[in-house]
Design a protein that fits this description.
Number of domains: 2
Mean pLDDT: 95
Number of strands: 13
Largest sheet: 6 strands, parallel
Structural class: alpha/beta
CATH topology of the largest domain: Rossmann fold
Organism: Bordetella genomosp. 13
Keywords: Transferase
Low-confidence stretches: none
GO molecular function: CoA-transferase activity
CATH class of the largest domain: Alpha Beta
Shape: elongated
Pfam family, one: CoA_transf_3
Strand content: 5-15%
Protein name: Carnitine dehydratase
CATH superfamily of the largest domain: Crotonobetainyl-coa:carnitine coa-transferase, domain 1
Distance between the termini: 29 Å
Oligomer: single chain
Length: 382
């Protein structure tokens, strides 16, 4: 479908993205992918992540390129009165303002929500923060790895008996960006009824805690502090990596039927009849003995061909792929999960697929812009 035919589900939505680093820019990119007109306001020196490399292209780091497509960039120095006035002109045209300044910064410039909400009553103001504005940690800056540490995520990530580990990607920042998108969408939906905007906040601390399933649910029920279990699931088994004759594979067996099928495929149907393993609870309780028995059987199999057989039999299994193999996998290509713009940009595509108004890719990172685009004719005000 061409861009002319598809303006995207958010066409006509005007977003002023004042955020930087990750959570806010990721939110802004998602909105832009689905058709919103996103103007990103950066300080004269640009977003800090332009320096977060290598690798670099023309002096700008790949990190920045991964979060800032489908935006047009304008540089304003909000420490100056002239540029603050320019920002107010843009706010007057915007539906959504997205920012993640340290709490108090916008207020010091007399640009905070309380100061502007009466002047711009339809504006949806989304703040991405570390801890929120108040409480014991209120207004403190937040960082992904620090939130992983203090939210409990690191405590359950790592090998059993080993040290706590940071998850190898900025999961808290990214989920906070997703939560910001959800909050903005809910506020837009409510604005259709009331005609009023509102303040939306997505905090890294809250988002980190929200990721603790099932560990939080387990602790709420029995009071036992969750422990690290390596690649294994804390509640179900076999849900773990297993050695084979070649490469390791991952099994994600969640019910009795899948377990019985697995045992048949690997030539150990007797395991499904072993009273220790006949129930999900038993398999989880006796996981050490089960892993030993499964790996003894799997030592006769090539991982790649076994994964194909198991998947064909509806047993969840997967190879453990490096990033390059995942990004060039035939199914990645089929799902159109890598997008190109021009000769110098490749990135991860939008994961949410809409049948009539799919995501579009219109602006490569670093596209300049000083004004919002004209509204699509069908969305122009009377």
């Amino acid at each position: 479908m061409s861009i002319a035919m598809n303006r995207g589900s958010l066409a006509g939505l005007r977003v002023l993205d004042l955020s930087r680093i990750l959570g806010g820019p990721y939110c802004g990119q998602i909105l832009g992918d689905h058709g919103a007109d996103v103007l990103k306001i950066e300080p004269p020196q640009g977003d800090d992540t332009r320096t977060w490399g290598p690798p670099f292209r023309d002096g700008v780091a790949s990190y920045y390129f991964g979060l800032n497509r489908n935006k047009r960039i304008q540089h304003l120095d909000l420490a100056t009165e002239q540029d603050r006035e320019r920002l107010l002109e843009l706010i007057a045209q915007a539906d959504v303002l997205l920012e993640n300044f340290k709490i108090g910064t916008m207020e010091r410039w007399n640009l905070g929500y309380d100061a502007l909400s009466q002047r711009f009553p339809r504006l949806i103001w989304c703040r991405v923060s570390g801890f929120g504005a108040d409480g014991p940690l209120g207004a403190l800056p937040g960082y992904d790895a620090a939130i992983q540490a203090m939210s409990g995520i690191m405590s359950v990530n790592g090998e059993a008996g080993g040290d706590a580990l940071r998850v190898g990607l900025p999961v808290v920042d990214m989920v906070t960006g997703l939560n910001a998108v959800i909050g903005i969408m809910m506020a837009l939906q409510e604005r259709q009824r009331s005609g009023m905007g509102q303040f939306v906040e997505a905090a890294l601390y809250d988002s980190g805690l929200s990721l603790l399933h099932p560990h939080a649910a387990n602790w709420f029920m029995d009071g036992r502090v969750p422990q690290r279990t390596g690649n294994a699931h804390p509640n179900i088994y076999p849900y773990d990596t297993f050695r084979t004759a070649t490469e390791p594979l991952f099994l994600a067996v969640g019910n009795d039927r899948q377990f019985t099928t697995l045992c048949g495929v690997i030539g150990r149907p007797d395991l499904a009849q072993d009273e220790r393993f006949t129930s999900a609870g038993g398999r989880s309780t006796h996981r050490a003995a089960l892993k030993e028995a499964l790996e003894a059987a799997l030592s006769a199999f090539d991982a790649e061909s076994l994964v194909d057989r198991l998947m064909a039999a509806n047993v969840p299994a997967a190879p453990v792929l490096p990033v390059d193999a995942a990004l060039t996998h035939p199914h990645t290509v089929h799902r159109e999960m890598v997008v190109s713009l021009g000769e110098n940009y490749r990135g991860l595509a939008a994961p949410v697929k809409l049948s009539r108004t799919p995501a579009t890719y219109r602006h490569a990172p670093l596209t300049p812009g000083s004004e919002f685009e004209p509204l699509p004719p069908a969305l122009d005000a009377d």
